[in-house]
Amino acid sequence: FMLWTESNEKLLDFLNALNSFDNNLKFTWKISTESVTFLDIDVYIKKGYLKHKINVKPTNTFQYLHYNSCHPVYVKRSIPKSLATRATKLCSESEDLKNYFSNIYDAFLKREYPEKLLNEKLQLNESNLNNNYVK
């Protein structure tokens, strides 16, 4: 992932030069003026600023550990909390965070997690919307 401020022609020259150093090492790239996915994060431009949100791949089935499994309760309670904490850190826009919370809330309900637990662990409030770790 990188930002490029020169012309597209210079960018292609640079990328081709990278691929000319070693025959066993080849770089791939995606060039976009709007958004790019890096690891599991979508980085996009909104009103001239870089923003980021969690990338959910089309193959993601949200098949989290079933609540009726024989795992210890602390494990089952920590999964929604850890996903919420991660999302709070990785979503720069409150709307993206709300959408992600909605998706995982529904997914956990399908896995029979109690609503009370989900409401507690996936609590979306002003403090976690305004205090993202990554800006």
TrEMBL record:
Query: What is a single Pfam family found in this protein's UniProt entry?
Result: HTH_animal
Describe the location of the Helix-turn-helix domain by residue ranges: 63-120
List the InterPro entries. HTH_animal
Protein name per the record: Helix-turn-helix domain-containing protein
